[in-house]
Amino acid sequence: MSEPPPETPRNPAVAGFLLGVRTAFTSVFGFVIVVTYIGYGALCHDFGFPVGWAMLSTALQWAGPAQVILVTALGSGTAAIETAVAVGLSSVRLLPMVVGLLPLIKTERTKPWQLVIPVHFIAVSVWIESMRIAPKIPREQRIGFCNGVGTTLVTLGVICTGIGYYMQGMLPLVFGAAAMFITPISFMVSAVRGARLLMEKAALVLGLTVGPLLALNKVDFDLLWTGVVGGTLAYGVHRVQRMRRAAP
Amino acid sequence: MTMEPYLALVLLGFLPSEVWRWIGLVVGRGLDEESEIILWVRAVATALVAAVVARIVLIPPGALAAVPLSVRLVALGGGVLAYYFIRRSAFAGVLVGEAILIVGMLAFGG
To answer: What is the mean pLDDT of residues A61-80?
Structure first.
C-alpha cells in the first residue's frame, strides 16, 4: 500500500487559499498591482486627498479605472451624479465577470454569505487568474483560491497606495504615465493569454474595434454597448462554429 | 456642491462599483457552468475588458495623456507581440509594452 502524499491538507479552503496567495505573488498581476497602486497613491496625493482616504478607496472599490475616475472627477469638481454614473459605467465589467466566475467556483453546498467576500475581490486581475487556474484545481479549493488571490492583491494594493502617496514628490512624470499604462497593457496581454476559444478571441477583436468606434464618437454608455454588441457577436461566432462542426 | 470626501467615496465610488458585484452574485448563483448564458456572459466580459483597454489608450487619463498616441498604440501592439514571441510570457508582454512606452515618451513626449 503506498504512502499518503506528504502534506494532504485537511481543509480544502485553506489549501486553496494558500495556493491563491502563492499564485498572486508569482503572477504578472502582483507586479501590475504594485505599479498601478503606487501610481494611484501618487495621483491621490496630486489631487489633495488624505492618505487614509486613498488607501481606503483601494480596499473599498478595488477597481483601478473606477478609482482613477473617482479621484479625477472629485478633484476637478465634477457634479456628484455625473461622477457616480461615470464610476458605475466603468465598473459594468464587474457584473459579467462575477456571473461568469461564480458557476466555476461554487459547490452545491455553498451558501450565499460565503460568496460575498470572494465577490468583492473580483477585479480583472483576480478574475483572469481565477478563470485560468480554477479549472485545474479541485472544486472545493476554488473559493479559497479566489480569497487567497484577492486578499493578497488587495493588501498589496492598499500598501502600495500608501507607498505611492508618500513617494509622489519623487516620482517622475514618466512613472505616472507608466503606471496608468500598465492597466491596459496587462489587461490586453493577459486577456490574449487567457483566450482559448475562438469566441474569446473574437470578443477581444470586437471589443477593440467596436469600442473605439463608440468611444471616439462620444456615444453614451459606450462601454456597455461595446460589451453587449461585441460579446453577442462573438457568441454568435461560437454558435456558427458549432453548427459547422455538427453538420457533416 | 462639494461632498465630504469619505461620504463621496462611499456614495460615488464604492456603491456604484460594488452594486455590479452584488447583482452578479444574485444573477450568477443559479447558473450552470456549462450553460449557453454563461458562455455569452464570458464573451461580454471579454469584450468589455478589450473595450476598457481601448478607452484608456485612446482617451488617456492623467499622465498618460502626455504620451503621443502613436507611442501608446505601438506600446500596446508591441507588448502583445512580445507576449507571443517571448515564450507566451505575460510578464514579457507587460515589460516590453512599458519599455516602449517609457522610451517613446522620453523621445517624443511632452
So the answer is: 90
Q: How far apart are CA A115 and CA A106, in angstroms?
A: 8
Model pLDDT for residues A150-162, shown as the tens digit of each residue: 999 999 999 999 9
- Would you say the C-alpha torsion A30, A191, A183, B9 has a positive or negative sign? negative
Cell numbers 503621443 correspond to what residue? B68
Give the per-residue SS3 of B27-74: HHCCCCCCCHHHHHHHHHHHHHHHHHHHHHHHCCCHHHHHCCHHHHHH
First and final C-alpha spacing in chain A = 50
In the predicted structure, residue A219 carries a pLDDT above the cut 90: no
Grid cell listed for A66:
473606477
B48 contacts in chain A (CB < 8 Å): 92-93, 96, 207, 223, 226-227, 230-231
Contact B109, B103 (CB under 8 A): no
Q: Which residues of chain A have a CB within 8 Å of the CB of B101? A: 177-178, 181, 185
Q: DSSP assignment, residue A20?
A: H
* B34: confidence class by pLDDT, cuts 50, 70, 90: confident
Q: pLDDT tens for residues B37-69?
A: 888 988 999 999 999 999 999 999 888 999 999
- The contacts of residue A156 (CB under 8 Å, 6+ apart) are A24, A30, A33, A34, A37
Q: Exposed, middle or buried: residue B27 (CB in 10 Å: 0-12, 13-18, 19+)?
A: middle
pTM for this predicted structure: 0.85
Cα–Cα distance between A117 and A146 in angstroms, integer? 9
Q: Is A243 on the interface with B (CB under 8 A)?
A: no
Question: Does the beta-carbon distance from A50 to B3 stay under 8 Å?
Answer: no
| ipTM score for this prediction | 0.89
Joined grid coordinates for residue A138: 479541485
